[in-house]
Description:
The chain is of the alpha/beta class. It folds into 2 domains: 7-104, K Homology domain, type 1 (Ribosomal Protein S8, Chain: A, domain 1), CATH 3.30.1370.10; 108-326, Rossmann fold (3-Layer(aba) Sandwich), CATH 3.40.50.300. It has 12 helices and 11 strands. Helix 5 (95-105) crosses helix 6 (124-135) and helix 10 crosses helix 11. The chain starts with 6 loop residues before the first strand and ends with a helix.
Amino acid sequence: MSKEAIRRIGLQFDDNTLAPLLFGDHDRNLAQIEEELDVEISSRGNEIVITGPKLKLKMAQTVFEVLWDRLTNGLPVGKEEVSAALQVALSPLDKGTRELAKAALKEPHVKMKSKNKTITARTPKQTEYLEAIRTHHLVFGLGPAGTGKTFLAVAKAVEMIMAGEIDRLILCRPAVEAGEHLGFLPGTMQEKVDPYLRPIYDALHHMIQPEQIAKRLADGSIEIAPLAFMRGRTLANAVVVLDEAQNTTVTQMKMALTRIGEGSRMIITGDLSQTDLPSGVKSGLRDAVEVLKGIKDAAFIEFDEKDVVRSRIVKHIVEAYDRRDKRP
C-alpha cells in the first residue's frame, strides 16, 4: 500500500440479498478491487471498510457505486464487470465522459430478444462506440484485438434487425489472411471462404439461436460473405459490418463505402497495426481514415490497450507490442 496519508471510509449496502453478489464468492470481487487500487477492504455483513490514500478511496467509492447500481438494476456483477468499473475509476476522463461511462455500466446498452441477453459497454471507449453507432451512418472502430470492436458492432446490428429497424444485416470480411490466397486452398468456394468468416459466425452465435441464424441466412435477411461479393450492389435499409478492414485495398474500401444506400449504416472495424496485405500495398482502411476524417455523419472511435476486455494477458500482450513499436 502507498505511503501517503492513510484514511478509512465505511460503506453500507441496504439490501442484504445483493451484498454477497457485490462482494463475490469468497469475497473475490473485493480482492480484485484491493489488488487493482492498492487498498485494503474488510467486510462484515452488508458493510465494508476501505483503507487507503484519499484518491484511492474516491476511486473505490466510484467502483462500488457503479457495481451496486448494476445489481439493483438486475444486472450481473462478476470479474469482467468489476474490471470495467475499475477502468472507469482509473481512467483520466473529463467529468462528462466519466458520467457517461458510469451510466453505461448501470444499464444494458444492447438487448437481445432471442437469447434473453443483455450486453453492456465495459469501457468508456466502448460506450462512445455504441453511441456513435446509434447516431452516425458511418462508424470506424479502430484498435487492437480484444477491445470488442467486432462483437459490439455485430451485437448492435443484431439488435436493430431483431427490432425491425432494418431489413438486412450484412457481415463481411476481405479474404486476405496471413499470406494465404483462396485459389490455392483445397475445397469448394464455400469451404475456402468459411474459415475467413468464422469469427463473424462466432459473434453471431452469441446473440441469436442457431435455428434463427439458419432461417435468416436462408431468407437473406442476414448475409455473411467475403467483401468481394459486395461489388456492384447498392444496399438499402441495411447495416453492413466490414470486419478486418485493414486488409482491404484502397479500391476495395472505396467500393465498400459506396455500397451504402438509403436508410443504411456501415460499421468498419480494423487494426491498422495488423495488416496482412503484401508489402508496399496501402491499406484501404488507413486511406479511408486519412480521406474521410472530418466528413459529416462519420465517426472514428480509436481503441487502445486500456480497452482490451478479452483477458488480462491479452491486455499485457498488446501493451508489450505497443511499447516495442514505439521504441526508436
